[in-house]
């Protein structure tokens, strides 16, 4: 048994694990069992740096390969993490506290849908059709057809129609995103963008860190490639940074997926400080960030929108933007701004997926932007969204004060409502369906499907009368369920 004093000093910590070279059990496993026990008992502290391989090998009289196997085994068990160029460190969390990745089977619930045409619809996030710039696009379509005739329907470069990319480069600069047109990839909506990144970059077993709760469409794309998703809790100003760094250390993920403003479904917007810290983490732990922008144009406050991509001096952010929300859902067009290192691989994935986004729609979009700009329609949509937002908040305070709580996100088209304690969101939404009101339970945005006690309410396409009626019905159902719970308690 090797466990001896040197120069009269009793070995401590990882140097004090007893080993027996005559034992049938490999030495690296003997060391691993001893280290695991020390980690569990707190003898080896979270984030404590372990000795260099050579030093530990000399102490135990073994070759370097044995210690490499020892450290690798601990890393596989998530008991330690390695930092390139720095060394090996004890895991910052007890193993049982690390959230387990979910399987693709958990995503099946998100594919279920029904037709609620006759109900008050608090699910739909699309704007009313009367806000769509139909006449402007009709003129753009006609101009493209008259000018290019049949050539309008030819394939474009897989990267996208060059005049459109130039228009979008100018638009992006208004958000502080300075890029060249060659770094802009035109895509058929934000969902395709997430899927292309997944197709190009993710392999089986790779890890993606996502917000908890998160948008299920993106999570589904990651899972479809065999990746594992690990959820990071959200605070009022963005991801929990302590948890985020711990998971970066443990899992060495390929990507961090987030929405920096008016997050789906919570409405949370990230503070400038957190955005900067997350960018620092991405560089330190060699991860890329997927920033999805669905609702940045729907900002109703005075705070300037600063995407992570605008702060991305080290080229760590893949910025994905959809035009569906602000223009028309059926347009199915968006863009990505890509780091130089990833551009070629993602461009290849785009080509093998559909060669290119519709050339005719891209040409029409370019004409539309050249003749109308972006800001005129965006201002009209923000005005509409702001009115709906403020009315929704007023009516919630009138009808549901003391029953539900919620943040005021100052943007987006949804509110994230916390139900009273003891009221399950799934049961509540089912009761509301009976009253012809459709809401989204929070479980749809949690990868484990847990009942969080939250519901998402979208006010995008609900007029004042229906909003008022729907909230009154919510109040009645909540009061009735609370009375039932009170009766059962006695």
Q: What would the keywords be for this entry?
A:
single chain, 490 residues, alpha/beta, Arc Repressor Mutant, subunit A, Aspartate Aminotransferase, domain 1, Aspartate Aminotransferase, domain 2, 3 domains, eight-stranded mixed sheet, four-stranded antiparallel sheet, 14 helices, 40% helix, globular
Taken in chain order, the helices and strands follow as HHHEEEHHEHEHEEHEHEEEHHHEEHEEEH
Count of the separate structural domains: 3
User: Would you tell me the structural class of the helices and strands?
Assistant: alpha/beta
Mean pLDDT: 88
CATH superfamily of the largest domain: Type I PLP-dependent aspartate aminotransferase-like (Major domain)
Helix share of residues?
40-55%
Q: What is the fold named in CATH at topology level of the largest domain?
A: Aspartate Aminotransferase, domain 2
CATH architectural name of the largest domain:
3-Layer(aba) Sandwich
The spatial strand order of the largest sheet comes to 4-11-10-9-8-5-6-7
Shape category: globular
Give the amount of beta strand, in percent: 5-15%
Low-confidence segments: 4-8, 96-113
Q: Which CATH top level class of the largest domain fits?
A: Alpha Beta
- How many angstroms separate the termini? 64 Å
Secondary structure tally, helices:
14
The oligomeric status of these chains comes to: single chain
Largest sheet: 8 strands, mixed
Rg, alpha carbons: 27 Å
Number of strands: 16
């Amino acid at each position: 048994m090797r466990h001896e004093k040197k120069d009269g000093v009793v070995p401590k910590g990882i140097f004090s694990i007893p080993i027996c070279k005559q034992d049938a059990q490999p030495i690296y496993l003997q060391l691993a069992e001893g280290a695991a026990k020390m980690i569990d008992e707190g003898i080896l502290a979270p984030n404590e740096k372990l000795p260099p391989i050579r030093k530990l090998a000399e102490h135990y009289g073994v070759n370097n390969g044995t210690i490499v196997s020892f450290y690798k085994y601990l890393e596989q068990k998530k008991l330690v993490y390695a930092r390139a160029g720095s060394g090996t460190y004890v895991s910052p969390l007890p193993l049982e506290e690390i959230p387990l990745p979910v399987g693709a089977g958990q995503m099946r619930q998100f594919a279920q849908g029904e037709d609620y045409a006759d109900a008050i619809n608090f699910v739909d996030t699309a704007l009313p059709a009367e806000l769509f710039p139909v006449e402007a696009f009709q003129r753009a379509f006609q101009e493209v057809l008259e000018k290019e005739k049949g050539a309008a329907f030819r394939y474009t470069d897989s990267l996208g129609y060059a005049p459109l990319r130039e228009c979008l480069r100018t638009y992006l600069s208004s958000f502080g995103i300075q890029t060249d047109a060659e770094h802009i990839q035109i895509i058929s909506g934000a969902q395709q963008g997430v899927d292309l990144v997944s197709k190009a970059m993710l392999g089986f077993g790779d890890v993606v860190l996502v917000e908890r709760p998160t948008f299920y469409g993106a999570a589904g794309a990651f899972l479809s490639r065999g990746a594992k998703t690990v959820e990071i809790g959200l605070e009022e100003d963005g991801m929990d940074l302590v948890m985020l760094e711990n998971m970066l250390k443990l899992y060495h993920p390929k990507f961090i997926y987030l929405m920096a403003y008016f997050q789906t479904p919570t409405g949370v917007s990230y503070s400038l400080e957190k955005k900067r810290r997350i960018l620092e983490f991405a560089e330190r732990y060699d991860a890329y960030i997927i920033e999805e922008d669905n609702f940045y144009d729907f900002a109703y406050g005075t705070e300037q929108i600063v995407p992570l991509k605008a702060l991305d001096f080290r080229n760590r952010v893949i910025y994905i933007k959809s035009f569906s929300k602000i223009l028309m859902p059926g347009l199915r067009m968006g863009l990505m701004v890509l780091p130089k290192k990833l551009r070629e691989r993602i461009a290849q994935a785009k080509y093998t997926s559909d060669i290119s986004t519709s050339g005719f729609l891209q040409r029409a979009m370019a004409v539309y932007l050249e003749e109308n700009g972006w800001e005129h329609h965006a201002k009209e949509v923000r005005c509409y969204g702001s009115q709906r937002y403020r009315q929704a908040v007023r009516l919630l305070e009138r009808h549901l004060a003391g029953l539900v709580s919620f943040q005021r996100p100052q943007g987006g088209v949804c509110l994230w409502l916390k139900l009273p304690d003891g009221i399950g969101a799934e049961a509540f939404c089912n009761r509301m369906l009976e009253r012809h009101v459709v809401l989204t339970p929070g479980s749809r945005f949690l990868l484990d499907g847990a009942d969080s006690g939250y519901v998402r309410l979208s006010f995008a396409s609900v007029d004042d009368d229906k909003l008022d009626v729907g909230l009154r019905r919510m109040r009645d159902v909540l009061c009735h369920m609370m009375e039932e719970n009170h009766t059962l308690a006695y």
